[in-house]
Amino acid sequence: MVLKAFFPTCCTSADSGLLVGRWVPEQNSAVVLAVVHFPFIPIQVKELLAQVQQASRVGVAVLGTWCHRRQEPEESLGHFLEGLGAIFSHEPWLQLCRERGSKLWSCKVTHRQVPTSPDAPGEDQVMLIFYDQRKVLLSQLHPPTALPDHQAGDATASTRGLAAVFDTVARSEALFRSDRFDEGLVRLSHWQSEGVEASIIVELAKQASGPVCLLFAYLLSLISAASACRVFKLWPLSFICSKLSTCEQLRHRLEQLTFIFSTQKAENASQLMRKANMLVSVLLDVALGLTLLSWLHGKDRIGQLADALVPVADWVAEELQHLLQWLMGAPAGLKMNRALDQVLGRFFLYHIHLWISYIHLMSPFIERILWHMGLSACLGLTVSLSILSDIIALLTFHIYCFYVYGARLYCLKICGLSSLWRLFRGKKWNVLRQRVDSCSYDLDQLFIGTLLFTILVFLLPTTALYYLVFTLLRLLVVTVQGLIHLLVDLTNSLPLYALGLRLCRPYRLSAGVKFQVLEHEAGRPLRLLMQINPLPYNRVVHTYRLPSCGCHPKHSWGSLCRKLFFGELIYPWRQRGEKQD
Amino acid sequence: MEDELTFSDIYGGRLALLRRYYSPSCREFCLSCPRLSLRSLTAVTCSVWLAAYGLFTLFEQNKAFPAWPRVDSLNSGICRRPSGNLTAGVWLSLQNSMILSAAIFITLIGLLGYLHFVKIDQETLLIIDSLGIQMTSSYASGKESTTFIEMGKVKDVIINEAIYMQKVIYYLCILLNDPMEPNGISQVVPVFQSAKPRLDCLIEVYRSCQEILAHGKATPTSP
After folding, report:
1. A38: phi then psi, degrees, rounded to nearest 5
2. Which of A55, A420, A421, A436 is the most buried (most CB within 10 A)?
3. Shared domain check, A361 and A216
């Protein structure tokens, strides 16, 4: 098999020295991590490698020699380098050589223990693969499919293929800590040897994060304790809180903030990404909310909104009244049962009258209420959108009531009709066996049953029409609320930090690698450049999606149609932990 | 070592296969698809513009009759039907220029989207013994999308038949190992999907791939 030598691009112009890295026998590949320059004392090099091995649990060893020479080959250097093979014994021993200023490389591999058989080639073929050490160190591989029996935590053995290279470089950070300005015993060349990278802001943030996290965690624990107190568990408040989406959103945000400011450090990279995503999403939310707040509270917009609200509610009620008058007449040319029509129509009209009076009673306080609700925008745009959705729900409460009345009436009618239809055919529903059985009825039972059946059948169009109209109105309101919830969900679950990282630092999130063949000459080893293949955007969103509130409609279109047909009530949002009606 | 051959795809278009032999263990096959033809581009642009002009004349005919009440509300109530002909005319021309500008916009955006997301110019297959197989598609706008499959996952490279619309075509595909079952196949990855070369081209590529795979399996792994 061809021997693959992974060589960092930062070391291609380094001076001659020893190659230090890890040998992966399963893939016959040598991952070079750094170059140790002359002069060095072998004992100190061995000590350094032992230290690094202990700190990072990576089997770092001296793999061979690196020779960056001028045009005329120096014979003494060549012999010296070969002599080093005796001091640092490694199997196989790699000898890489490059002429200064040219692209010609030569590689030689010697196996000491395995005797070369006569028909095998004298030199193993070597393939040089250049990689950018910094990018490979910082990137995170996302394998295409996670194996179901893959155990997390077995760090050394199971990383297969190129993941082993990434793993080796990522865990050998201890080797890259010193740069050439450090007065160390051993002079190394690696990606940080020109100067260790650091950022003042990052360091300050790291120092400040400890106390800040403690403070916020304390405040949040106070808030959670206050919200978990007994008052909220009593029946009216708990019922209202479970129905309002604002409370759900606030609870969700509290959970997220508790997770972000928890004093435990993130265990692995995915937890860190989750924290970062949540933090960025909360910050963006609050920023948008503050923008909305400043826009609302300027130029007396709240007053304008409050002035517009009562006429809008009046207009909705008036339109409903027109609709009911139309239904009470001959809607769409259909002929309704006059008595039932009048009863239902008057019943609903009285409701609307009550509703209008209620709105007019509330109208002096509306501006104040709106002003205080507008303040909630500083908690985030999602909270304001949830409040908006709740306001819509409250303002259209009468439509919801009408829908429930219409649906219940229709449902009763359908139940009665189906049962009397069975009686008409001489059958009965067997509750024990849960099936339809034949039954012999008495004459008077049959007579009354058939009479009731005909009455219900002829009253069906009227009820069905009222049900249809109010269901459509309810579905319209549900659609509007659904769109708002979708927007809130999107803001909650979009991983903005991961998307920003993919946009600005694409090598951080990698789906794999790609190779490019560099200039090749016959007789020289094959040289490839390994680059990081970034993760596509849809996979970024899919992998790093934050968990949302979870209040999605649980039924499919088929079951929805079935429920509509039979008059069963539709509850589009089931909050978590609520029992089904 | 580089050479170029000409083949044809399943529709009869001309394909150019560029073979590069870097070393006995590394080969690259570059298949160039036929470019975007001026004829089809002109046809699409002309049809979109004809549709836009058709809509424009339709609107003009409708507005020739003074039965357009919405103009009043949009001109904030100033316009009454007999005296508002001037403002109505201005609004008319604005609407028509909107249709034509929308047509230009749609054509441009559609063309850019087509070049960036749909039209593949070149497909490359790079096979490196003991590393893996890499497939690159380069789009007409310069975007490149690459997939790399490690050699440990590759079971074999085969030519398979498929029924495509009313034809039976041949395509080259890579079979991937199933980690659960030693003899099973977890996935079939087709190669040269948008170029769709015919069997003669596929046989060339197949032979070279099999040589490299055999070479890889023949040399024993070192201890």
Report:
1. -75, 150
2. A420
3. no
